[in-house]
Write a structure and sequence with these properties.
About 45% of the residues lie in helices and about 15% in strands. With about 260 residues, it is an alpha/beta fold. The protein has one domain: Alpha/Beta hydrolase fold, catalytic domain (Rossmann fold, 3-Layer(aba) Sandwich), CATH 3.40.50. Strands 1-2-4-3-5-6-7-8 form an eight-stranded mixed sheet, with helices on both faces.
């Protein structure tokens, strides 16, 4: 009897874990190789259905903090989707898997130019894919995104970064600038991909200056359109300034309609 109760609790816990990050919605979930993907359908019909590609997609991301954005996207017929590869940092291998996910979404009738939404380390995932696929990006949006491999990945999260690239520290140090997406923004600027980012000026984990600010500065010098909404006095945290940004949601909805 005790074993049966334990088994039931384990099953229920598994169900909770599977859907805890899916807000109040039950998504379509599908497998792509070893990666679990999710799709929250915005009830759009036909081909070229607009969608926002969110990262990081992990067992608990996205989570209830994203409800405000998701409600408004779905109300406008914009779907939200993502692909869980685990803790990747933009290596060629992880970019390749994301490309397979992109093709799968297009095969399912979704737009060839999704809006990329990268939060925290998801920013690095999305920007690394975007700089290699500039003509497949409708816009880039970020919530205090990691964008610079020389910032949080090397300073505070080196182990998973090395694991993603399959290199030791010495080898990675020799090629980091080659893989750093902040050095490869020209294609996005040429494709006229706009950017909109919200970032706190007191972020000690993912510093504004080393990430969003440097990207915006370089992007503008290349002729690109980059807007940063700086949230004063806030760091790497869940507050309305980041998760209820009118500017960011209007940007994503507007770009999804184009």
């Amino acid at each position: 009897m005790i074993k049966r109760i334990f088994l039931l609790l384990s099953v229920l816990a598994g169900i909770h874990t599977a859907y805890a990050h899916r807000l109040a919605f039950r998504p379509l979930e599908f497998q792509l190789g070893e990666s679990k993907c999710f799709l929250l359908e915005g009830n759009a019909t036909g081909q070229d259905k607009p969608w926002v590609w969110y990262a990081p997609t992990l067992p608990r991301h996205p989570d209830p903090s994203h409800t405000w954005y998701v409600d408004r996207l779905l109300a406008k017929g914009v779907s939200l989707a993502g692909c869980d590869q685990g803790e990747v940092r933009g290596s060629p291998k992880s970019v390749e898997v994301f490309t397979k996910f992109y093709h799968e979404m297009v095969r399912r009738g979704y737009s060839e130019k999704p809006i990329l939404l990268g939060q925290s380390r998801g920013g690095l995932m999305m920007l690394s894919w975007a700089v290699r696929n500039p003509k497949r990006v409708g816009a880039f949006a970020g919530i205090y995104p990691v964008l610079n491999l020389r910032s949080w990945p090397m300073k505070r999260n080196l182990g998973p970064t090395l694991a993603d690239f399959g290199l030791d520290q010495d080898a990675f140090s020799g090629v980091v600038d080659q893989h750093n997406p902040i050095n490869h923004l020209a294609g996005l600027a040429k494709a006229k991909v706009p950017m909109c980012i919200v970032h706190g000026d007191s972020d000690l984990v993912v510093p504004l200056k080393e990430n969003s600010a440097i990207v915006a500065d370089r992007y503008r010098k290349l002729g690109g359109d980059a807007k940063i909404e700086v949230v004063p006095g806030k760091g790497h945290q869940v507050v309305d300034g980041f998760f209820k940004s009118t500017e960011l949601i209007e940007f994503m909805i507007k770009r999804s309609a184009q």
